[in-house]
Specification:
With 192 residues, the protein is an alpha/beta fold. It is built from seven helices and five strands. A five-stranded parallel β-sheet has the order 2-1-3-4-5, sandwiched between helices.
């Protein structure tokens, strides 16, 4: 059954490497028959959080927020693609996500982390687990960590070792699909 996933990315650096992982995962989702809606916080250009989308009177939110709210609410699940900044989360991604809340409720999330070094961003991934749980989008157990991102994927998101990367991604995305289908059925029956 085709699902729709939102891939959220938040690096604002001039030499962004994580976009490689975003491109790879979007193609992998589409190859599995799903929709992949990429939300890049740099492209969206939201200001530092002043007011959440839900805090605007109906119809008064800025157009980019209203569009993003619609896109997030249409999603069956989320993939958060995160780098690691001083063992923590990327400020651009956190700012993007904090503009919303209810749009994430009762949908699974999955964390894809990357770094230039050997740890693949897993320290940031641990912080994201807590944040996503609080936002109502609990993360799946598997984390897709990509160490040495510059060697692992080229600029277009093509893996240096397609067999290994595709095998790992298959398990990761399969798990996300399972949770997304289960929670989609549960939402259709009603939410708490």
């Amino acid at each position: 059954m085709p699902l729709t996933f939102t891939v959220l990315y938040g690096s604002h650096r001039s030499d962004r490497k994580g976009i490689r992982l975003v491109r790879y995962l979007a193609r992998a989702l589409e190859a599995r028959g799903h929709g992949a809606d990429v939300v890049d916080s740099l492209a969206v250009g939201l200001p530092i959080l002043d007011r959440m989308y839900k805090e605007y009177p109906a119809g008064a939110a800025p157009a980019p927020l209203a569009d993003l709210a619609r896109r997030l609410a249409a999603s069956d699940g989320f993939i958060v693609v995160t780098g690691e900044y001083n063992h923590g989360v990327q400020p651009g991604l956190k700012n993007l996500m904090d503009h919303f809340l209810e749009e994430y409720f009762y949908r699974p999330s999955a964390i894809a982390a990357y770094s230039p070094g050997p740890f693949g961003g897993v320290r940031a991934a641990m912080s994201w687990r807590m944040i996503l749980g609080e936002m109502g989008a609990p993360s799946i157990p598997t984390i897709f960590a990509v160490p040495q991102i510059s060697r692992a994927l080229d600029d277009e998101g093509v893996p240096a070792d397609p067999s290994a990367m595709d095998r790992r991604a298959g398990r990761f995305l399969g798990e996300l699909e399972w949770y997304a289908a289960a929670l989609q059925a549960a939402r259709a029956a009603g939410t708490p």
